[in-house]
Amino acid sequence: MKTVFKALALSLFAASALGSVAVMAQDYPTQPVTIVVPFAAGGPTDTVTRLVAAAMSEDLGQQVVVQNVGGAGGTLGAGQVAAATNDGYTLLLHHIGMSTAPALYASLPYDPMTDFATIGLVTEVPMTVVARRDFEPASLEDLIAYIKENGENITYANAGIGAASQLCGLLIMDALGTKMTEVPYQGTGPAMTDLLGGQIDMMCDQTTNTTSQIQAGEIKAYAVTTPERVAVLPDLPTLAEGGLDNFNLSIWHGLYAPAGTDQAIIDRLSQSLQKALADQNLGNSFAELGTYPVPADQATPAALSEKLEGQIGLWAEVIAAAGVSAQ
User: What InterPro entries does this protein's entry cite (predicted)?
Assistant: First the structure.
């Protein structure tokens, strides 16, 4: 009889717990939500996140706060979210680095595919090849010749091992068969400051972090990294136009929660993300930065999960061929 009562008590407890989770999910959110950006403030991922957070705040009825946790190529902030309570109040907005980290770090403290719940894709951002304003080459053709001739005498800024800015540089150097001197920073925000000050020769960064400086003439721009020119920077040729055939690099961003987050909360966040990306004001802000929101069918858990899995395999091959490692 005691066994029967114990089993009944456990069943009632489990049902009560499930009911509490359901109520919590239904009422979510009841407090501010934090989105962790695993890079320094002022960089391109930070810019994208702040625009998305503002739009999602309106829909969720709670403030969505952005927290910058930079370091270790984005793995520090990502690891913090992977270890966070899975109640929907700590999220991660990360870029392509989520898919490159497994190939770069031998002892990564999380598994991108199993330690996170995907919410949806956000945007794919073109990159630009830029330099200090007084850099010698006058055109893309001149730049390519200059890199081939001067190689390691050129300083190339990036946001560290595995960052999009480093990956772009690696692909360019591989295509040209030469090496430049890499100068790592905590993020491309600080790198841009030194580029503006003339302390660094070159960098490759997303349009979200370079468009305004290019348009103001504060830095020199040579090319975009996508197969087509970018509408907001129509005079910039593609790298393919300069002879780097099939060069195609855009930086996708996705929104994640810790694994085990209740599916009802994930669905609510995905719906909020879709609504935010459909907002005309956000679309206009993205357009000014040379990017665009993904369509609604891409701002879903399934679409981001599929993208992440495919990109992990793709970049594992590229990084192995380049012989790059963070350890």
Answer: BUG, Bug_dom1
Query: What dotted CATH number matches 126-242?
Result: 3.40.190.10
Give the model confidence (pLDDT) of 71-94 as tens digits.
Answer: 888 899 999 999 999 999 999 999
pLDDT one-digit tens code per residue, 155-200: 999 987 777 888 899 889 988 999 999 999 888 889 999 999 999 9
Alpha carbon of residue 81 to chain centroid: 15
Spatial CA neighbour of 290 closest among 243, 247, 242, 250: 250
Give me the phi and psi of 183, to 5 degrees please: -125, 105
pTM of the model: 0.80
CATH number of 30-124+252-322: 3.40.190.150
Give the separation between CA 311 and CA 32, rounded to whole angstroms: 32
